[in-house]
Amino acid sequence: MIDKFYSSLQAAVADIKDGSSILISGFGEAGSPVELIHALIDQGARDLTIVNNNAGNGRVGLAALIAAGRVRKIICSYPRSSGSTVFQELFRAGKIELELVPQGTLAERIRAGGAGIPAFYTPTGAGTPLAEGKEVRSFAGREYLLEYGITTDFALVKAQKADRFGNLTYNKVARNFGPIMCMAAKTTIVQVRRLMPAGSLDAEAVVTPGIFVDRLVEIPDPVVESALISQGASYP
Hints:
The protein is globular, with a radius of gyration of 18 Å. The protein has a single domain, classed as Glutaconate Coenzyme A-transferase, CATH 3.40.1080.10. It is built from 7 helices and 11 strands. The chain has helices at residues 9-13, 34-43, 62-67, 86-92, 103-115, 178-184, 225-230; strands at 21-24, 48-51, 71-76, 97-100, 119-122, 136-139, 142-148, 152-163, 168-169, 185-196, 215-218. Strands 1, 2, 3, 4, 8, 9, 10 and 11 form an 8-stranded mixed β-sheet that branches. 41% of the residues are buried. The longest helix has 13 residues, at 103-115. Helix content is 23%, strand content 27%. By secondary structure, it is of the alpha/beta class.
């Protein structure tokens, strides 16, 4: 019998080691696995490379992980956003590395990595500072940059429902990077609102097949990141 359910957040993230690379889902707070991130802070792994759409807001979730000094490098599209301060402070102090990637390119690099595609060409960024150090080729008179697929040791993802096999559904836009991140990591850890009986999910509604999911933790009432930020909360 396959059962990917873990009884606690702590058990699910226990083997994440120093120096690990981690995909973290979310578009701002939509789809951000805040509870898994906080469990990772408690777990203590450091020198991490994080791939996310942004660099966190306030002092909870991803921003709290960065503030704790656990992140060596972040690969993202929006290092600055409304309510973000932690990353900027550390970046100016030279305490964190940044690899800036246009959002569409970031999504395609993750998708390519999960699909086993090592690299691809895109016109995005050609002729800009983002092209520095990258291979450039011309196709039909237009310049393209060589970009590499992204794969990581772990992915932390938030979903809506799952069965014990790891089949996932998502809540509207909270889906965002989740499906492709599940495919691009060696070990995918997912927090879900509801664990469902086997066979109860409509196969036509399943977005991520269970083959791409390794661990599940049920969080029936996840925190609302924006509410924590408006309250001035910080973690830990």
